[in-house]
């Protein structure tokens, strides 16, 4: 984790080298009405999920994010795909599914003229996934019985609290990380002898809450300069 912080400390000064500010403008009497209007959209892709697959072949995930600015707030929409496979006690389990998130976040660096951000956000998240299980199951009277289940339509929802940073590294390109705390999971569970084992975007279904960390490469498509409120100076 220390490596990621060091990287961000290195790239942050690079975003301050530009002599001309093309990204934002101060609020005044002529543009104050545009303060809460979107000025662009920032698109991102997670680069950590695919990289982790080289160390743990059980799970593979791809995540994408899109956000637009609304004054000091951002509105976020995210989605992705995840697969998971594991073999325990001669039982083969596999899962494939999609997950989605949507929610607001507040940017504590909303006055930064290069549009860097340190944020806290909330997400409503949900997933649609299929599970396959095959292998022996112990029966009461007949001993071990080979079974096979294929659950094609499973759903689950949960809430998230997220925090992280996004830093401009060059022109419209940003890099940033996000910590996720997932909790309050609920969902439909089919009438089969087992509950969901792994939920895409959430993790092990048996846990009341899970943590996550992702690292994004992003690019901002901007159609106008973002209007920034100047910090008020108290008069003596």
Which keywords apply here?
about 240 residues; Porin; eight-stranded antiparallel β-barrel
Describe this structure in words.
- This protein is mostly beta strands.
- It has a single domain (about 1-230), classed as Porin.
- It has helices at about 1-10, 50; strands at about 25, 40-45, 60-70, 75-90, 90-105, 115-140, 145-170, 175-185, 200, 205, 210-220, 225-230.
- Strands 2-3-4-5-6-7-8-11 form an eight-stranded antiparallel barrel.
- A hairpin with a 2-residue loop joins strand 4 and strand 5.
- The radius of gyration is 22 Å and the shape is elongated.
What's this model, at a glance?
The chain is mainly β and 236 residues long. It has helices at residues 2-11, 48-52; strands spanning 24-26, 40-46, 59-70, 73-88, 91-107, 117-139, 143-170, 173-186, 198-199, 203-204, 209-222, 226-228.
Percent of sequence in beta strands: over 45%
Biggest β-sheet description: 8 strands, antiparallel, barrel
Give the helix level as a range of percent. Answer: under 10%
Query: What is the CATH C level class, in words?
Result: Mainly Beta
CATH architectural group: Beta Barrel
Point out poorly predicted stretches: 7-20
Give the SSE order as H and E letters: HEEHEEEEEEEEEE
Order the strands across the largest sheet as they lie in space: 2-3-4-5-6-7-8-11
Please name the CATH topology.
Porin
Q: What's the overall geometry?
A: elongated
In DSSP terms (H or I, runs of 4 or more residues), the helix count works out at 2
């Amino acid at each position: 984790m220390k490596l990621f912080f060091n990287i961000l400390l290195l790239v942050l000064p690079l975003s301050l080298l530009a002599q001309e500010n093309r990204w934002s403008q101060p609020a005044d009497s002529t543009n104050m009405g545009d303060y809460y209007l979107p000025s662009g959209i920032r698109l991102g892709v997670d680069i950590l999920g695919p990289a982790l697959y080289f160390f743990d072949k059980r799970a593979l995930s791809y995540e994408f994010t899109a956000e637009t600015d609304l004054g000091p707030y951002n509105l976020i929409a995210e989605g992705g795909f995840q697969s998971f496979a594991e073999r325990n006690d001669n039982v083969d389990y596999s899962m494939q599914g999609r997950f989605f998130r949507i929610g607001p976040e507040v940017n504590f660096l909303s006055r930064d003229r290069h549009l860097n951000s340190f944020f806290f956000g909330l997400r409503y998240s949900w997933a649609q996934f299929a599970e396959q299980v095959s292998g022996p199951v112990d029966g009461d009277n007949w001993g071990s019985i080979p079974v096979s289940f294929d659950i094609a339509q499973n759903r689950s929802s949960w809430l998230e609290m997220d925090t992280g940073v996004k830093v401009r590294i060059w022109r419209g390109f940003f890099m940033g990380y996000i910590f996720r705390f997932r909790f309050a999971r609920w969902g439909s569970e089919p009438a089969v002898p087992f509950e969901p084992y792994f939920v895409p975007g959430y993790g092990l279904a048996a846990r009341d809450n899970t943590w996550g960390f992702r690292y994004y490469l992003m690019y901002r498509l901007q159609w106008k300069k973002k209007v920034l409120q100047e910090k008020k100076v108290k008069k003596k």
